[in-house]
Amino acid sequence: MPLTSIEPLTSLSSHATRNRPAPCQSRCSHVGSHLVADIVRSRLHLADLDQSVFILTQSRQGLCSRNTRHGGHQICNPPDVCSGHGRILAVEVSSSPFEVSIAVIRYLDRTNCLGMASGESTSQPEDSHISHADTLIYWNAVAATPNGMLGDMLRMYPQISRIDLRGSLNFLTEIRGRADGSTERDLLDRSVDCGAGIGRVTAGFLSKVCRIVDAVEPVEKFAKVLREMLLTGEGRVGEVYVVVLQDWIPVEKYDVIWNQWCLGHLTDDELQQFLLRCKAALKEGGWIVVKENMSTNTEGKDMFDEEDSSVTRTHEKFQTLFQNAGLLMAKTELQTGFPKKLLPVRFYGLQSH
User: Fold this and answer.
1) 88 and 105 in contact (C-beta within 8 Å)?
2) pTM for this predicted structure
């Protein structure tokens, strides 16, 4: 769970929903050479210490890596304290034979807390905080199940996957029909599901409109499920490429390249290069479809999520990236039917100029 709000450490066993809320804000001050933020203290029994320290070590800075069970006093200060948003800056652990007191100093302000005595700005773009190593660690720890893929979103809203797949089918049918008069019954020859996971989109949608569905999935245990998948549609699983998106170089030509809830793991530069490779891999009249969460930041900025090391972009940012990649945005619309508590999800139908 990302430490993005002030709360007792004893609550860290709960999980945040995968469709992420807007970032928290808090005011910080600079004192000497230390950045001081909100401080929370939680008194824990020794039986709880291992889990709490383990959760803290999952932060990008690897805090509290030493075992503190046997007493003593420890302060961990990351070297680049102002480089991350919503990240732990310091953790102080002091223990006695009977209980442990943990003080967590957290950097929550995403715009104004710069840690500069002179008032100079060190603002960095949200995508600069993406760590591909952290992303792989996160997803390798996720179960290869539908609940693992969608997390609390599926547990809270069991109908979400059905609504999502129906919306995707409707969108693809509409952009195809507008372009060449195709209907839902006319099968495409080949598509690719990027960031395919265990194949929810492949099985539930793409295999019903395409004869062959390739997949790009960097997590081997997910790829194994894909290879063994029994499809109910007329299509079949083709090649499964176990590679991260930023390293994938298409060798086939595709009617549809489908990208859903995965592009946030790429930096802006990586995404632009990825889109250029996808454009080169399209058949004549082919489509790149992007379906991603939209940022709800009140200042119109992207939002970084340190839980899975991803960025939720604004509509304007996507438009700029598409334009820079030489792609024509033929159609865009919001997914309908999702609960209002979730982030907006937008489709983009893209073609080469």
Assistant:
1) yes
2) 0.68
